Amino acid sequence: MSLPVMPSLPALTTQQRDDIRQACGFACVRCGVTIYRYLRLPEGPGATLLCPTCHGLVEEGRLTSTQVQSFHTNPVVRQRHFARDRLPFSPDLPTLILGGSRQVRDTPIPLTLEGEPILIFAPPRRSNGATRISLRLGGVDGAPVQIIDGNEWLPSDGSWHFLLRGDRYSVMAARGDGLAVLRIVARNRIAVEHLRTTIRGRRLEVTPDWMEIDGKRNVGRIAGGTLIGLEC
């Protein structure tokens, strides 16, 4: 029997979102990934959190209503076997590894391109929550697209894909070469393993060891201890 549709809930209030995150353990209730959608439960009026991958299983009919409700009642992050250290559950801003600047600390916005913040990191609103991650990349037409906003996965049209691969959060464009791979080195340490985007004709590519802006390679230019590490 196929599962009833679990629609996204974009009109939730700030308090409602906070309550849902707290109830779900600040992560996907099935796998613990800290990038998620706010979704209506298939049975009853409540709401839950599922990552894009697990929500895809719902849409494919590979999860039953009973399974979804069971995960919601007992989220995986609250289970004794779950290793929180492998995902970004930290009360502090993470130390970042990117662009040859290997210890970028206390920098919420490591990079902007054409005035657009590419990545934003923020501490959780509650000490037992997860690092808040936001991501903005260029779409097929070069216009900026907000893909993740404070851990909430926004695309609903299949234009972007998300995947957890080991200790890596991978975001890929369905069309074009937009890409962001974040490696969770430790719960308060994140490496930008590969980021690639074009916004309004400006090209940016970043690895842990270097960054290229419009084809020109740079190393160690991203500053720490400031609001914005580098404006491109």
In short:
With about 230 residues, the protein is mainly beta. The protein is built from three helices and 18 strands.
Structure write-up:
The chain is built from three helices and 18 strands. It has 232 residues and is mainly beta. It has two domains: 14-78, no CATH class; 95-227, no CATH class. The strands form four sheets. Strands 3, 4, 11, 12, 13, 14, 15, 16 and 17 form a nine-stranded mixed sheet that branches. A four-stranded antiparallel sheet has the order 7-8-9-10, with no helix packed on it. A three-stranded mixed sheet has the order 6-5-18, with no helix packed on it. Strand 15 (202-206) and strand 16 (211-213) form a beta hairpin.
Largest sheet: 9 strands, mixed
Distance between the termini: 51 Å
Q: Can you tell me the overall shape?
A: globular
Q: How many structural domains are formed by the residues?
A: 2
Radius of gyration: 18 Å
SSE topology string? HEEHHEEEEEEEEEEEEEEEE
Number of strands: 18
Key descriptive features of the protein:
single chain; 232 residues; mainly beta; nine-stranded mixed β-sheet; four-stranded antiparallel β-sheet; 3 helices; 18 strands; globular
Task: Summarize the helices and strands and which ones pair or pack.
Layout: H1 14-24, E1 37-40, E2 47-50, H2 52-59, H3 65-73, E3 95-98, E4 101-104, E5 109-113, E6 116-117, E7 119-122, E8 132-138, E9 144-149, E10 152-153, E11 160-165, E12 168-173, E13 179-186, E14 189-199, E15 202-206, E16 211-213, E17 216-218, E18 228-231
Parallel strand pairs: 3-14, 5-18
Antiparallel strand pairs: 1-2, 3-4, 5-6, 7-8, 8-9, 9-10, 11-12, 12-13, 13-14, 14-15, 15-16, 16-17
